[in-house]
Amino acid sequence: MKKKKSSFFDIPALSALAKLRVSGKKLKEYQNQLGEVLNFIKQLEKVDVSSVESTSRTIEINNVFFEDGITPDQVLKSLKNLKIRKVANQGNYFVTKRVKWQS
Amino acid sequence: MDLWRLSINQIKKLIKSGQVSPEEVYKVFLSRIKKFNPGLNAFITVIEKPEIDKTKKDAPLFGIPFSMKDVYMTKGIKTTAGSAILKNYISQYDAAVYRRLKQAGAVLIGKTNCDAWGHGVSTENSDLMTTKNPWNTDFVAGGSSGGSGACLAKDMAVFDIGEDTGGSIRLPASFCSVVGLKATYGLISRYGAIAYASSLDTVGPMARTVEDCALVLEAIAGKDRLDATSSSLPIPKYSQQLNKSIKGTKIGIPKEYFVKGLDQEVAQKVKQVINRFEKMGARIIKISLPMTKYAIAVYYLIAPSETSSNLSRFDGIRYGKGRGKFGDEAKRRILLGTFALSAGYYDAYYLKATKIRTLIKRDFEKAFKTVDVIVAPVSPTPPFKIGEKADDPLQMYLADVFTVPISLAGVPSLSLPCGFSQKGLPIGFQIIGPHFQEAKILNFGHQYQKESGTFREYEN
Question: What is the pLDDT of residues A5-63, one digit of tens each?
Fold first, then answer.
């Protein structure tokens, strides 16, 4: 079967939104693969949903309320055992590598 | 005596009568792991020293060794989700399902391999290793809970806790010839499970028999205040509801699951199952689930959208390594989800998918007005070769064609073995029931296994 031409998938814009770095060979590869997936997904255009409500949960869910308070077994008592790069000297703070990319 | 062949009840009896100790039981299964795991890559973590809580002597699963898919928090033990990002991450607390199993006296023996973040059908998307099919190591074990399937096929644990979002328990159960239950969404707490797609994720037992599945389910199901989506419905004793006759019941056969593309050997085996049920006194009724054809497209909009949100927490600060460590499949799904949720596309893609999800759910509601359960294949094909679909994500996604409609509808489904292909590869089928009717599908499954056996290696 002849493959349909892939739909355009703007990888650079989407990867910036998703905080992912995609470039070079991978950019082209993902472009083709996700374009094909998007082609497949486009079959949904045929379905008439004009009078249909959306479903986000399939069972009935009620809000859960309980008294606010500390549950001791859920409290992090010390930063000592955390596998983080460096613990700051003062207070219960920890230091990480900067995340924001340099432009 | 081959202890490793025994069921939960049989092992419990031996422990209770003092014929074996929990330590001896553990040792037997640990030696099976040492023997088979190196050739299969089923386990990411193996626990050499058991933590047997002797105060739980009267608990329902006392001394039973079990494994868990490596997506559940286990305090002080590594939890990787099969990912490079969490390769060395040590859990800070226990998942609800693990806590309940410990309370029931069960003993964790190890944590099993899976596609990273649950993204896959073969474990080839695991950042750590690929699990091989125990029946033929050239083939995949299924996924994403492939390590769990392989572990049980070679009796390396008595039962396992898998996780099913779009088929991740049912497919490896089918590919490895074991039993797997995708529970109703909300039946079992998801607290402490690394989230893939939160409106679809379900925790579920995998085992070698339906009876063992029922015993585990009654220990782990039920309301948990730490999971707002867990149901408050009372939990029945599933194991005590396995001996009801199915005579006079109605089984629906959906025509959309027996279409072009379904492997002939799979079709033949599932038809044998249907004939068997008919001989057992059930009425077979042809039904239609017309929205089935749209389920894969809907799933691959909703699940990636939710995963793009869930995986945003992996920023290199709070957990594990940075986003550069995501594998190809995780990146593809994050990008797809980001696309479906972005301005200008949200209504046309994500929102539309959630509306078609309503139609898929209605299909099942309508069907269950006329039938008790639905019987269908789990996978369109027997297990495929390792590497066969690795470069074609769309083909990989289509392996889920018969499992994702059930996930989108949130109904329960039991996957169980029904034979082998000519190449000796396992084939499975699924019994689908209405919401929270696990007792019913487990009973159908148990009745089937009483007639047909469990398709274990030592039964052949």
Answer: 556 788 999 999 999 999 899 999 999 999 999 999 999 999 999 999 999 989 987 77
Q: Is the pLDDT at A2 greater than 50, yes or no?
A: no
Residue B338 structure tokens = 């980001």
Is B358 within 8 Å of A54 when comparing Cβ atoms?
A: yes
CATH of the domain at B79: 3.90.1300.10
Burial of A8 (0-12, 13-18, 19+ CB in 10 A): exposed
Secondary structure class of B443 (helix, strand, coil): helix
Two structure tokens written together for B135: 């029946």
Nearest C-alpha neighbor of B32 from the set B206, B155, B189, B118: B155
Give Cα separations from B452 to A76, B112, B376, B387, B391 (angstroms).
51, 29, 17, 33, 38
Instruction: Identify the domain containing residue B89 by its residue range.
Output: 3-459
Nearest CB to B297 within list A14, A43, A49: A43
Q: What is the DSSP letter of B348?
A: I
- The answer to whether B185 and A56 are in contact (CB under 8 A) is no
Interface of A with B (CB under 8 A): 9, 11, 14-15, 17-22, 26, 30, 33-34, 36-38, 40-41, 43-44, 47, 49, 52-59, 61-64, 66, 73-74, 76, 82-83, 96-97, 99
Type of residue numbered B239: S
Token digits for B319?
A: 């957990």
Q: In this predicted structure, which of B123-127, B144-148, B415-419, B456-460 has the lowest mean pLDDT?
A: B456-460
Distance CA(B75)–CA(B93), nearest Å, equals: 4
What mean pLDDT is predicted for residues B93-99? Answer: 97
CB B441 within 8 A of CB B414: yes
Cα dist from B354 to A35, A56, B5, B207, whole Å: 21, 6, 44, 33
- Alpha-carbon gap, residue B10 to A68, rounded angstroms: 45
Whether residue B241 contacts residue B443, with contact meaning beta carbons closer than 8 Å, is answered with: yes
Name the least confident of A46-60, B364-378, B407-421: A46-60
Query: Which pLDDT score, from 0 to 100, does residue B102 have?
Result: 98
d(C-alpha B137, C-alpha B130), whole Å: 11
Which residues are CB-contacts of B251 (< 8 A; sequence separation ≥ 6)?
A: B274, B277, B282, B283, B284, B285, B371, B372, B373, B374, B375, B444
CA distance A27 to B264: 38
B199–A58 CB contact, under 8 Å: yes
| Distance (Å, whole) CA B383 – CA B138 | 10
Helices assigned H by DSSP within chain A: 11-17, 24-41
| Number of structural domains in chain B | 1
Q: Name the region of B223 (left: φ>0; alpha: ψ -120 to 50; beta: rest).
A: beta
Cα→Cα distances A83→A71, A94, B75, B83, B219, Å: 23, 11, 14, 17, 33
ipTM: 0.91
